[in-house]
Amino acid sequence: MRFTDLFLLSTRMFKTRPLRTFLTILGVSVGIGTVLFLVSLGYGLQNAILSRITTADSLLSLDVAPGATDLITLSDEDIETIKQIPEVEEVSPVIHFSGQLMVDNIIGDGFIQAVDPSYFRLSGTSVKYGKTIENDNQGEIVVSSAGAKLFNLEPEQIIGKEAFLTLFIPVTTIDDSDSSGEEVTISKREEQYKIVGVIDDETLNYVFIPRKMISDLAITNYDQLKVKVSASEYMVGVRDKIINSGFLVSSLSDTIDQANKIFSVVQLILSLFGLVALVVSAIGMFNTMTIALLERINEIGIMRAIGVTRRDIKILFLMESVIMGFMGGVGGVLVGFFASEIANIGVNILAKTFGGQAIDLFYNPPWFIAVIIVFSTLIGFMTGIYPSNKAGKLNPLTALRYK
Q1: Residue 52 — very low, low, confident or very high, per pLDDT cuts 50/70/90?
Q2: DSSP 77-102
Q3: Which residues neighbour 216 within 8 Å (Cβ) at sequence distance 6 or greater?
């Protein structure tokens, strides 16, 4: 038989038994849709979390901290040495203080970080309101949303406010017995600072200030460095060189790699839950094909009597199961898509009701949609193997006498 004839015969099920065929395809669609729903939830959570903490530059940056002992510090000389490494593209130092911020005559304690404008890019830190520090010669500062609440202001209301800073600077002292201690020097800054940005963080009150604005303090030791490498393949080599100098080195890319591994496990577990529904659907599809075989034994006998080959009978049943599998895959994509949209809308309504942020919880990679349709078609093929072989092996005379 010609392929077109086999294809037309295999699609008769949509006319002769439309309800049973529709329910079988719907069962497969529900199984495929469940897998797509759960896996897209895993991908969506992964994208939602990682997109908030990563930028292209931050993935190429190393965090360098002083060594494990007090003797190993980060100085200007160390910065120049690190800059001399050929693969290092940029170095951004950070100084940490405790301090106080005064806004509208209200004083609040907080954690203060003196940084260069490049710090935000290299660390992947972004603001929700306003902008980051762009000019380190101006008195622009960035605060956290927790800091804004400390002054009884909403994050968007604190933008443009003038602030005064008081820094508590630790100073190491050595007495006559050569034992070291630490004293705190209070530096009340006379200049006004303008709040230009707010970072979304409700847990900790902190302030970013331009490092150049405290250059008069002549601080030469730093608490942290952000070191940007020119390309990802140089990360390990540069890290080893810095570690050999006695410093502690970590990178956001390591954290991202670990997070991706964790999310891979989560996605696998979610897929296994979805596969349970898919197995049930496949059993239903196998049952449908077996019943179709029993109902059409006489028809098979007539087809064999007029010259249809065993091979054509096998192909006919396989094509029916493959078509149902493919249609189930397409339907499953639609079911999974609409289910994820409805769930996403519901979650975002709840989030806004309780004062949270809207977020896209689901993400469907195009390659995964293609894979799941192919997988569904393959399931249709596998469930059709036994009925097609059984149909092809039927004796024509036995089939004609079957009632």
Answers
A1: low
A2: HHHHHHHTSTTEEEEEEEEEEEEEEE
A3: none
Please give the pLDDT value at position 103.
87
User: Is residue 122, in this structure, part of any structural domain at all?
Assistant: yes
Give strand pairing partners of 378: none
- Collapse the DSSP code of 214 into the 3-class scheme (helix H, G, I; strand E, B; otherwise coil) and give the result: helix
Q: What is the DSSP letter of 231?
A: S
Check whether residue 395 and residue 351 sit in a common domain: yes
Q: Are residues 271 and 396 in the same domain?
A: yes
Domain end marker among 246, 281, 302:
246
User: Environment class of residue 64 by beta-carbon count within 10 Å: exposed (0-12), middle (13-18) or buried (19+)?
Assistant: buried
Q: What is the DSSP letter of 382?
A: H
* Residue entry with tokens 């890319």: 253
Q: Which of 334, 373, 390 is nearest to 33 (CA)?
A: 334
CB crowding 9-45: b at 16 or more within 10 Å, else e: bbeebeeebeeebeebbbbbbbbbbbbbbbbbbbbbb
What radius of gyration, in Å, describes the C-alpha atoms of the chain?
A: 33
Residue 69: what pLDDT?
63
| Structure token digits, residue 230 | 């020119």
Number of C-beta neighbours around residue 8 at 10 A:
10
Q: Are residues 236 and 262 in the same domain?
A: no
Question: In which element (H, E) is residue 118 found?
Answer: helix 118-123
CA–CA distance, 141 with 380 (Å, rounded to integer): 61
Give the DSSP letter of residue 60: G
CA angle 43, 44, 49 (to 5 degrees): 100
Q: Determine the 3-state secondary structure of 359 from DSSP.
A: coil
pTM, two decimals, is 0.58
Predicted confidence at residue 300, as pLDDT, reads 78
Q: Which domain holds residue 97?
A: 67-246
CA quadruple 270, 276, 277, 280: dihedral, nearest 10: 170
Residues 55, 74 contacting (CB under 8 angstroms): no
Are 230 and 341 part of one and the same domain? no
Degrees, nearest 5: CA angle 261-264-268: 145
Could you tell me the sign of the dihedral formed by the alpha carbons of 129, 134, 139, 141, in that order? positive
Q: Which residues contact 111 (CB under 8 A, 6 or more apart)?
A: 96, 97, 98, 99, 204, 205, 206, 207
What amino acid occupies position 28? V
For residues 186 and 156, state if they share a domain.
yes
User: What pLDDT shows up at residue 173?
Assistant: 52
Q: pLDDT value at position 208?
A: 92
